[in-house]
Amino acid sequence: MIIKRQTVAYSDFIQDVETGDVILMHGQYKSSHWIEFFEGVPWSHSAMLIRSQDIGIEDPDNTILIWEANLLIDEIEDVILCKSKDGPMLVRLHDRIHYNFTHNDDSMFAIRHLYTERTPDIFKKIKDVIQKTHDAHFPSSTHEIGNFLEGRFKNKPSKNGTFFCSQLLSHTFMEMGLLSKNHPDNSFAPADFSEKMDISLQKRAWLGKEMVLDVKTI
Predict the structure, then answer these.
(1) What is the mean pLDDT of residues 155-175?
(2) 97: helix, strand or coil
(3) 3-class DSSP assignment, residue 61
(4) Vertex 116, ends 115 and 120: CA angle to 5°?
(5) What's the gap between Cα 190 and its chain centre?
(6) 148 vs 18, 158, 177, CA distance in Å?
(7) Reduced to 3 states, what is the DSSP secondary structure of residue 116?
(8) Longest CA span, the chain
(9) What letter does residue 139 receive in the DSSP assignment?
(10) Proportion of the chain in helix, strand, coil states, percent, rounded to 5
(11) 106-112 and 87-92 as β-strands: parallel, antiparallel, unpaired?
(12) b/e code 41-60 from CB counts within 10 Å (16+ = b)
């Protein structure tokens, strides 16, 4: 039997995670399958991983958080607001993966490590992005598609103040100074952060190979 893609146990999956690493998810919803089909990659959701202490959240375990834009899930709490919300949110990575897998929302997860110098200024910029966008919401399905198409094919930024997943991720990279603002944040799709597209980062930063989680070890 030929193994097409090697996977790693959860303990190895999170072992070397640093703030700024990218996580990709393979969704099980029909809308997720459509996104993955048209993009030609197995990923329909993208987000950034953040170590809690890097952004000033006191936590003796330095918990790995996921900075993402998503729909409202009542069982998942934002760690700053201590309640559920839609749109940009900061939640515990383990909670998100465990919920998504056990509820059959997502069936595959991959990390791409960000290789760059991590400075106090980088962490401050991430913290500033969180503060400025935290109250925003996730767009309706119609607006999500429309915002992306306007950005991708007309290079027009969205104006309704909402964020979909890859839009928030690209926006955060832009504010960190690692992604050009030549194209609006709503022009990016999850596939752009996959190995297939391999997004071009600035300041000699780059993303490593996709490291896929063995979901049996969750």
Answers:
(1) 96
(2) helix
(3) coil
(4) 135
(5) 8
(6) 28, 8, 22
(7) coil
(8) 51
(9) P
(10) 35, 20, 45
(11) unpaired
(12) bbbbbbbbbbbbebbebeee
Burial 112-122, CB ≥16 within 10 A → b, else e: bbbebeeeeeb
Q: Check whether 1 has a pLDDT greater than 60.
A: no
Does position 107 have pLDDT exceeding 80, yes or no?
no
d(CA 76, CA 80): 12
HSE-up of 141 (CA within 13 Å, CB side)? 5
Q: Which two tokens stand for residue 199?
A: 């997004």
Specify burial of residue 27 (Cβ count, 10 A radius: 0-12, 13-18, 19+).
buried
Residue 36 confidence class, pLDDT cut points 50, 70, 90: low
CA distance from start to end of the chain: 24
Angle between helices 120-133 and 165-175 (to 10 degrees): 140
Placement of tokens 């990923």 in the chain: 43
Please report, rounded to a whole number, the percentage of residues in the chain having pLDDT higher than 70: 91
* Inter-residue contact 61 to 179 (CB < 8 Å): no
Tell me the three state secondary structure of residue 82.
coil
| Domains of the chain with CATH codes | 7-217 (3.90.1720.10)
With tokens 């000033």, the residue in question is 56
The whole-angstrom separation of Cα 206 and Cα 199 is 8
